[in-house]
Write a structure and sequence with these properties.
The chain has about 375 residues and is of the alpha/beta class. It has 16 helices and eleven strands. Strand 9, helix 10 and strand 10 form a beta-alpha-beta unit.
Length: about 375
């Protein structure tokens, strides 16, 4: 859906004066507020004192010095979106300037307005995502304080509770083993489950220790964090379920990555619980799984549905396009995924071929349209 203009401020940089006037008139006619800067030096000063939503750069045939000046100017405001108008393919320049995309002139008015709308929409989404991350960090901080309090309560418990040996005679409660690498979270879950009447037969902070404990203590349900250090929870689950007498596995996650959630389902886990759920829901999920039922947190329904919607891209191709849509360039994606830039380019090329598009911007747009990725 094309974004409805809301009077966003756009700065036009470079090009000759008649071209800037024509472009300004086009954008003003579409409802945008426009300012112009003849060159990057003037743009840098304007970006330092005014707020803009988008910068449109007419590159022409830029020298290395020109690109340095453009890079310095855009560094004045990291929140501004950027579109390049160029005379030739400028994919590397677009990556360097972290631009939403580039258009090779001449460009039809309608195509330019669509690109402007898409760039502003992505900027809005990035700002919303940043605010969401800040809210999530605050929530994590609050829950951490709550977990610290739970740990203190556990430490104040009687010697009898602290010294219970998981190898002792089994109690009537469901036998549960917890695999979670964060000690505070692990102890908080242990206290919660003991209070709910479960028989916590052991806890582990990493996969190898967990496998040994599960073989020795035979829990009915293993609650396993997906994001364990080293070997992840999905790989641990796959190995456990290949063995005779394996426990029912409830994977526990704070991730909203569709590929990760899809892999969690495909590995054969009996359930998938969200860390964002209230504590009582985790207890009910364990009870359901122990009774032979499957449990999938309703908060993850929309993500799980998208992961099964007939996607044509591989999980890695979707991941690369998703990171590209979020504003990362090829080198940043390679660093985040611990891949070589050549491998990232291969994934992008494969995705572009599958989506029948010729540019990265078109690939992101088409993947969004097909719901292969989401903003």
């Amino acid at each position: 859906m094309i974004r409805v203009p809301r009077g966003d401020a756009i700065l036009l940089v470079g090009g000759d004066e008649p071209a800037r006037r024509r472009l300004a008139a086009l954008l003003q006619g579409a409802g945008y507020a426009c300012s112009v800067a003849p060159a990057p030096l003037e743009a840098s000063a304007m970006l330092a004192r005014e707020r803009f939503s988008l910068v449109v750069c007419r590159l022409g045939a830029p020298s290395a010095e020109d690109l340095d000046r453009y890079e310095d100017a855009l560094a004045q405001d990291r929140d501004v979106a950027t579109i390049l108008l160029a005379r030739r393919d400028e994919i590397d320049t677009a990556d360097r300037l972290n631009a939403f995309g580039y258009l090779v002139e001449p460009v039809a008015d309608g195509e330019l307005l669509v690109y402007v709308a898409c760039a502003l929409r992505r900027r809005d989404v990035e700002l919303e995502n940043r605010a969401h991350r800040e809210r999530m960090e605050e929530m994590v901080a609050q829950r951490t304080l709550a977990l610290v309090d739970a740990v203190r309560r556990l430490e104040r418990s009687t010697d009898e509770l602290r010294q219970l040996d998981a190898d002792a005679q089994p109690r009537a409660g469901i036998r549960v083993l917890i695999v979670e690498d964060h000690e505070g979270v692990r102890k908080g879950i242990e206290l919660l489950l003991r209070d709910e009447g479960f028989d916590v037969v052991g806890t582990a902070g990493e996969a190898a220790q967990a496998e040994t404990l599960i073989a020795r203590r035979r829990p009915q349900v293993a609650v396993i964090d997906i994001n364990l250090p080293g070997e992840g929870g999905i790989d641990l689950t796959r190995r456990l379920l290949a063995q005779a007498g394996a426990p029912r596995v409830l994977l526990y996650t704070g991730s909203e990555d569709e590929g990760t959630l899809s892999a969690a389902i495909e590995v054969g886990a009996a359930g998938l619980a969200s860390k964002a759920a209230p504590p009582g829901e985790l207890a009910q999920a364990i009870r359901d799984v122990a009774r032979g039922l499957d449990y999938f947190d309703p908060r993850l329904d929309s993500l799980l549905a998208r992961s099964k919607s007939g996607a044509v891209l591989t999980p890695r191709e979707r991941q690369v396009l998703d990171m590209l849509a979020s504003g990362l360039n090829g080198e940043q994606i390679a660093a985040e995924l611990v891949l070589s830039p050549e491998t990232v380019r291969t994934h992008l090329t494969n995705a572009m071929n599958k989506l029948a598009v010729r540019t990265r911007v078109h690939a992101v747009t088409e993947a969004l349209r097909r719901r292969e990725i989401s903003l």
